Every structure is written in structure tokens, then in C-alpha cells.
Amino acid sequence: MTESMSPREAKNRFLNHHESEYSANTLQEYGYSLDRFIEWLDEQNVSDMNRMTGRLVSDFAEDRKQNVKPATLKTDLDRVRRLMQFCESIDAVPEGIADKIISPQLAGKDEARDERVTEKQAEAILDYLEKFEYADRRHLIFYLVWHTGCRSGSLRALDVQDFTYGPDGPELHVLHRPHAGTPLKNKEKGERIISLNDEATEIIETWLEYHRPPVEDEYGREPLIATSQGRISKGALQRNFYVMTRPCWYSNECPHDVKVSECEARTHHGASKCPSSRSPHAGRRGAIQRFLNNDAELEDVSGRANVSREVLKKHYDTGDKRELQRRRRRSLDKF
């Protein structure tokens, strides 16, 4: 027998149940997906989870399909299914509901998004930054993403003290600090030491000496990527990346034939509306692609970027047929 429970209470219980299992970012992403489902249930006047049916979830999927890409729909339905599995375990929905949720099978082109910063774009952006914003915050952000392939969460997590000189040279220590505001996606498994080249080292040292504001965050830590308010927020980091990858910003040209003065993406907060602008994640994808195109070993790229070999090959190695052929040739010519 099912017991009465509102959709929002079910979501909150589900997230609380997985709090020790998932990172803060993963919980937040689950919350976003489930909020869309709950808002849709509100529109259908469904206020009790024991009214849940397979047909209801199917109707949600049909409605959602009109507004999102296949990969997003699959993610949302997979998360709704996990919610239903949890709700079945606490007698909040009829038994068997989770098994009725059919998640779409993705075609190859939909399975892994190919959005990335290309080497050509990165070179143009870095040329601009070196000339006009050398060792300033945006230069540091872009260079570290491109040089290390790190996630934005790892970049935000860095403190000034995490930049050190080890026995093999300058390095960054990426640490999981969930109780001090900077958890890593893969928790302790995401901790690692990243070696730095001379250029990255010089940029960091110049930033620390001349440009970094002397601030602490709310935990008394000294963030490496700092603003006048403290540690840079995730949103601010993303907005800066969208600005830097807008072609009109680094080349003064628009590939979309839009007058810059009339473009809705010309402002700092509107930069993401530019079709050519890219997120930090697209920068990470491009960086990993560059490592692979230059014959870096999968194991080394896996360790540096903190991503498994399987995920690396499926979601990040997005070379076209010609790139893959050239890579195979370089690898196999010795035989």
C-alpha cells in the first residue's frame, strides 16, 4: 500500500538519501532535472506521488522532447527513473513504476556532444589575452583550462597555497574540500598533482604578484582564482569563458554577420547567446582533444584531466575521421 507524499517532498528525500554518495554538484544537477519534472506535475495538478503512472511519465517525456536535445531528455528520464526507484522503496508510488520509464537510446551523433574549443580558436584567444590582458584573471582561467584540461570545479577549488614547487618543478595540487566550499566531482578520487610548464608558471606568478586581489573566501582560504569578493563563483567563471570565446571579442569579427552594436550577445551577461561562444566544459573537451591529437598516452590524459579511459574515449575524444587517421598513422608507423 502506498502512502501519501508530495512530489517535492519525494525529491527532497531522494536528494537527502544520496547526499553522502553524490558530490554537491551532482546533487545540484539532479535537483535541476527533478525540479522540471515536479513543475510539470504541478501543471497537471498532480500533488501526490501515489497518483503516479507510466502514462504520466510518458506524457512528461513527450512534452519535454519538444524543448530539449535527445541527450538532455535521456538524462532527465534516467534521473526520474532513479527517483521512482527510491519512491518505490519507501512505498510512495505504485510498485513497478520505475520499470515503465523508457529512456531513449541515443544515436552516435547525439550520444556525446561535440561542442569544443578548437586549437585555432584557442590560439587566437590566447594571442589576444597575451597582448591585452596578460596574467589577468581571464588569461589565467583560459590558460589553465587549456593547459590542464581541468573541470571548472577543479579550477575554482584551487588556493594560492596549492601552487607549489615540487621535486620535479612547479605544480598545482587539486584537493577535495567539501566542508570548505569546494568539493570535487569525483571526491577524493579527483585529487591529483598537475605539472605546469614554464608559461603557465609565469602567468600564475605574475597574477599573484601584480593582479590577484588580496582576499579570502568565507572559509578563510585564499582562492587562486579570486575576485574582489573572494573566490570566483561558478556562474562568473562560466560568463568569463563565454565572453572570451565570442569571436567578436578576440578577433573583432562576427562569423554570423551580425552588427556588434546591435547583437544581444555583446554584453558580459549576454555572451552565452552567441552561437560561437563556448563554456568551460567545451574548453576542457578541446584541451583533451589537443592532448590526444598530439599523441599523449590515454593513461596520462586520464590522470591529468581526471577522467576514466572509457569516458575519455566515448565523450571527449571527438576527433573527426581525418584526425583519427593521422593519429593512428603516427602511432602505427613504427610497425
TrEMBL record:
Domain Tyr recombinase: 112-329
Domain of life where this protein originates: Archaea
Any single Pfam family the record assigns to this protein: Phage_int_SAM_1
Span list, region Disordered: 316-335
Amino acid composition bias (Basic residues), ranges on this chain: 324-335
Keyword terms of this UniProt record: DNA integration, DNA recombination, DNA-binding
Alphabetical GO biological process terms: DNA integration; DNA recombination
MF-aspect GO terms: DNA binding
Domain Core-binding (CB): 5-88
UniProt-recorded name of the protein: Site-specific recombinase XerD
